# Entry
Amino acid sequence: MSTSSAEVRSNGILAALAPHRRELSVLLAYVVLLLVLAVVAPRFFRPDPIRALLVSNASVLVAAVGMTMIILCRQIDISIGSIFSVCGVAAGLLVKMGLPMPVVGLGTIAVGCLLGALNGLLVAGLRLPSIVATLATMVVWRESLRYAREGQFVRDLPPSFQWFGLGQALGQTAVVALAAVVFVVFAWSLRNVAVGRSVLAVGSDPEAARLVGIPPGRVIFGVFTLMGLLAGLAALLNAVRFADVDPGAGGGLELQVIAAVVVGGTAVTGGRGTLLGTLIGVALLGSIGPALVFMDAKPQWEKAVQGLIILAAVATDALERQER
Amino acid sequence: MATPEPLEPPPPTPLTHAPGPAVSILPVLLVLEIVVFSLIGTNFFTTANAFEVIRLSVEIGLLAVALTPVITTGGIDLSVGSLMGLSAVVFGKLWRDAGAPIPLAAAGTLVCGAVAGALNGFLITRGRIPPLIVTLGTYSLARGLAEGLTGGVDNYTNFPPSFLALGQGYLAGGAPTQAPLFVVVALAFWLLLHRTTIGRGLSAIGYSPEGARHAGLPVDRWVGLVYILSGSTASLAAVVYASHLGQAKADAGTGYELAAITAVVLGGTSIFGGKGSVHGTILGLFAIALLQIGLRLADLPAELAGVATGLVLLAAIGLDRRGERGPRHHSSVSSSESLTVKNSQVAVICAAILAAAAINFAGNAYLVRAIARERPAVLPSSTEAGSRAASTDHAPRAPLTVALMPKSKGNAYFITCRQGAEEAAAELGVNLLWDGPTDPDPAKQNEVIDTWITRGVDVIAVAVENREGVSSVLRKARERGIKTLTWDADAEEDAREFFVNQATPEGIGRTLMDNAARILGGKGSFAIITASLTAGNMIAWQKAIEARRLEKYPNITMAALRPCDDLQKKAFDETTTVLNANPAVKLFMAICSPAVPGAAEAVKQSGRTDVKVIGIGLPNDSKRYVHAGITDCVILWNTRDLGYLTVRAASAVARGELKRGATRFAAGRLGEVHIEGTDILLGQPYLFTKDNIDKFDF
Amino acid sequence: MLLELREITKSFGGVRALKGVSFDLRAGEIHALVGENGAGKSTLIKVVTGAHAPDQGDLWVQGQAVAAMSPTRARELGIAAIYQQPALFPDLTVAENIAIGLEPGGVLRRIRWKERGDRARRLLERIGARIDVQTRVRKLSMPEQQLVEIARALGAEARILIMDEPTASLSDQEVDRLFQVIVDLKAHGVGVVYISHRLEELPRVADRVTALRDGAVVGTRRMDETSRGELIRMMVGRELKAVFPKTAVAAGDVVLETRGLSCARTGVRNVDLVVRAGEIVGLAGLVGAGRTELARVLFGLTPADGGEIRLRDRPVKIPSPGAAVRLGVAYVPEDRRRHGVILEMTTAANITLATLRQISRLGFLDFARERAIAHDYVARLGVKTPSLDAPVGNLSGGNQQKVALARWLVAGPALLILDEPTQGVDVGAKAEIHRLMSELAERGLAVLMISSELPEILGMSDRIVVMRSGAIMGTLERSGATQESILELALGHTAAARTAS
# Structure
């Protein structure tokens, strides 16, 4: 304990970085992965793979931004995969109704908002434990969608749908840019806008928040609604990459996103974590699959590697805590 | 130091041993389910059904009773489903590869589960990492190890009959053989949680870990113990599962963790710890099982069971929380003033949103059905022979009930099969039941078949997900005088009368590989995008493709095999990655239907005109890519005719008009079809290319 | 008139915490509120700050009736509060904790970090606290947290400032500084509601004093017209004559002996301590002197990393609480609600929790035996509980403490460590607990008692051991000890000015 604090004092840069140790350690892991790739498969660093990585993880990042705020509030939302699927199908059906793309976008996001708000009401209004409430809504939406679509793609969409009608190059840029904007806006607001601090405050201690005039219920409701909104946006960003909409698109998304947030250093006990960490978490977990392909590894080990990385990330947390 | 003034006596909380509201609601719910389903379901209120409920609940039940103490300590174990997969693989390896006798292999498996549980326990107690995170990691790790050790492909089968009897046999009186095992394990956990010092301690730990520590309780040791128990019980469940299905594979128990947690929570165990009961869990388990089976016996679609389970869970937990104080340790919202909406308002808004959603979905469903019905059958084989033949061959007998099962619900491939089946059913005047599992889980098909046996149907036709797993239950159906057929994919030969064979894996493999060779010009490399590493039909196709390649095209190499989880998005991503990683790949074979458009879209977006896609998929998904010259061809049989032929054959078998040994069969509008051995042949798979694809609409 | 409460009534689950309380506060006045624990002081101020809604009664602020008070509304009306338990956010920095709730503007306003830091530094400086404003509050000590809380309340620039036990864990200099600030505020027309247990502090700051007892106002006096004795009479309903039922017992064999006991993690240094059978050893010292830390080492919660522990003349290691229990060490912790009992569990289950072996055969619980034991101890200790199956959370503080004590008496320990055994316990229960302690000692139990109440230490102890910064500063015999001599040791070289007054 004494040595580490001495070190910190002796070195200004270290001191400044100390609060971000968690992000740094994940970043370090990511850098190691990239270095290995640079040696084994330098091809990974050409523009195409990087662009593909960016485009395909844009929607994951958007969903992870929402999940970070949920977890910062000491909650969890496992229904986002289902919401994502429902929103994707909604986008497809709306565009087939002949609506212009901006309306479709807003409509999709509104559907997400609505479903998120329902979760919010269950958790903040009825005080149900979020893990149980969202487990229930996850099953309800997934099965309802399965009943309605029977797995059928939403097909024959007008050309205005794919890439927002902007064409591939511009469309890809738009998808990545939108995700980047969402990330930057939320990361900045979480740090620099009062309502963002309220999220951290509620996650840190809900009762203390109430005493200083921050209504925890309203914050939690808001965060769930925002999660729904971002899930809707993520679904939209994912759907426009394709010519058809796959109604199963959100399958397994919840665990992928929760894992990314946790690997990124957000504490499930609330109050601690940054979106920067989440970004690195998404990048790390999103890169493993392609990295293994580039390294010509057997696909059957991919899940095991992912599990190991999650465990390693949390284990460093534990080690760090014991050091103190 | 500041001390709280004890001014605020907390409102009364439920006692440790008193049943929570959920436990008192559940019996009412159970009675309600029994009454309702006895009225609307067929053969619901019978002992045979009661026993089936137990058999089908055993694996998830084992997980659920072991999870009850875990959740009582305020923890959670997400890894149990994955551990079942790992345990199944270990069990198979020990028995087949290491040559251990079954009891020894089972014991070894339990040790493996205990070790995995100990790892969870160690990280949670020593590392002080929240259980949710630890077990999320081991959830990936265990499944990953299971897949890695077997490549996803290995399937351990041919267990000795004495072992299979454990999971498939009956005791005197018709009780399933695994019932005593479940009773013993459940009783053991009940005793542990409710009658021992450890159980008392677990409850104390759940309420207040620090309080328990200050009472001198070995908190870490006991928390570790519950994770070890949950790990080894997951292994036990895997062994039972192996004997129930007759196979051990890496995908065992997929998704079981959530089903088990649902049962535990529905049973009144608080997710925040402290309050929990094994009997509540068992009630919760049966409430869910009865709901699923009852809905099925009432011929209602399986998806409804999921929706109903979700709603029941919300209702039970909502009632449970009424009058209870907010959770102390994780307090989410602790004050009534925090949100100015009243509970009644919330209820109204929730109801409104739910209603809106229901209307939306119902509307969608109606629309889909309506569109599907309107679609003209413009298929080459459904032309003139058509309905004229149909009207002649049905006699005024009691209507048959034909039960037809797709591999899973929610798979677009089967939509047109169903249309064909409905067409045939209408012509023949038979009742058609169409249902299947909603999860890609080999055990779930057995559940549905078991329910159909209980319900009483004349003939069952199954698109088999899992050859070994489904055969024993089909044999059982035959013993009960129900005719059985398979279609789309086959079971073991003695488990069914006929297999309606649309195309053999060899035929598919040959066609795909030959086309690949044609496109590649005899040399080069290609990649396969598959649904999952563990799906049975995918593995069969991969093997057939590989066999053909070795046999005829030594200059062609397979560069990569990537799973896409049956998702278009993932197929796209995998294809893109392979394209980037390995520019030498000139051809993608997408062998599951969402992968074909996914891969084609990836090739299109990459701008690589030298890369082509072929695959097995629906023509409608591929039309645009075929016309754009990206997808060279897709292979599929006429799925509508497949459904049509299956129902035709099924009803003929049931009426005794079609017996083994026949070589031809008059199948309505399809005319005469050939029978080879016990395979009713639909005909050759279609090759959909630029020239003919527009003639098809499915 | 800044603040006026009229006939405020508030109940919690059938228990009336406030029974028609009226109270007022003028501008430029410091109005002290005194009362025993549980008299209703904290509830009253929570009504004022909007944390609790009253069942009946009116609340007037600056001549305006306020219908629905909420924490937000209170802030708008210029009411700020320092709560007894710091209502801080452990994961946020000091600067942010001070700023949160102070800054005007909507939820979408931008945070100005520099401004926040500057303000926090300014406010902390004003009360003489040297705390880095960028530290996370999680890492602060209890007194530091208290100072942050005070700084935040000052920063609100409120017209009405409510302070609930602000000095509980502060040093003398910090208290002096705080009083200067309060007097200064008063000069600027701020009204202060000042709650304190330290009656001797009141004459230095208060203008008027109101005493509460059992949720009702006993009376309001001008500070200069009342006396300590009168206040105590008002608070407890009778003159508090410290009657400690301690009987002299001949000390027996040495039960506990430590030599050079240390625990680097919690700052316990080189402790040599002897406790004999039949002896009550009082462990005195200021908050943070390392007394609780020492107790936690002896109970195995934070195992020792140096020195030796001998129990009944045998060297032992105590690596865990379980080991401590087996060796006959019992510990009734300070934080009763979080550590001492498990609120949701029944009285019977709490009483037997440390001795599950006694109520089980082969690991299986014997419910009849459990009830018999619980019934026995409930009767012996006079625990007032509706039934053995009532959750302990439903009992009063004193009865909870008796349950916590009963748990260890069942275990029949050789050494009983009591950490602030009568904190937050009403007068009646307090006397009972003292009587019980005396009885236990008579029967040959070795008792180590931590207390911050000097009269209790003086009244109950056979010997008094004084600690400061994790080490023992000296030992006083019962006969020769006075409050002054204890404080001298506890404070080190600085004069014990505060309590001398």
About this structure: Chain C has a mean pLDDT of 86.
